[in-house]
Amino acid sequence: MTIVKTNEIEEFASTFPGRKEELYRLKEGYDELVSKLESIWSEIDEIRPSDASSGERKRFAMSLMETTAKHDLKMFTGLYFGLVDGKVKSIKEYMMDYDDKLLYHLL
Question: By three-state DSSP, how is residue 100 classified?
């Protein structure tokens, strides 16, 4: 998955040509997932909490759960909480640190 995340497929495929098709399939799935996560972020960004009150946080959390469930990506709710809280800088950075084994099975 690291090869897919860093887009070093050609370098790897030149050494292991038998895995090239699998890597391109994974890369396509990875790119689609990142694009979908970014699209959801645009949707969620519009419903960000307007202040730090518990009521606003709860409203946001409920909307976030609803939105991620609608897209069948509930496992990424932590990503969006992290983005809102400033603990995560970007979706791509988050995905670089995402567990490769889990990501492989997801794709």
Answer: helix
In the block, tokens 């699209």 appear at 39
pTM of the model: 0.88
* 6 CA to centre of own chain: 15
Q: Which domain covers residue 61, as residue numbers?
A: 2-106
- Amino acid code (one letter) for 13: A
pLDDT digits (tens, 9 = 90+) for 11-40: 898 999 999 999 999 999 999 999 999 999
What is the spatial distance between Cα 10 and Cα 95, in angstroms, rounded to a whole number? 21
Euclidean distance between CA atoms 75 and 69, whole angstroms:
9
How many domains does the chain contain in total? Answer: 1
How far from 91 is each of 20, 21, 38, 54, 60, CA to CA, in Å?
Answer: 26, 26, 7, 25, 19
Residue 61 neighbours by CB distance under 10 Å? 15
Computed on alpha carbons and rounded to an integer, the radius of gyration of the chain in Å comes to 16
Residue type, 100: D
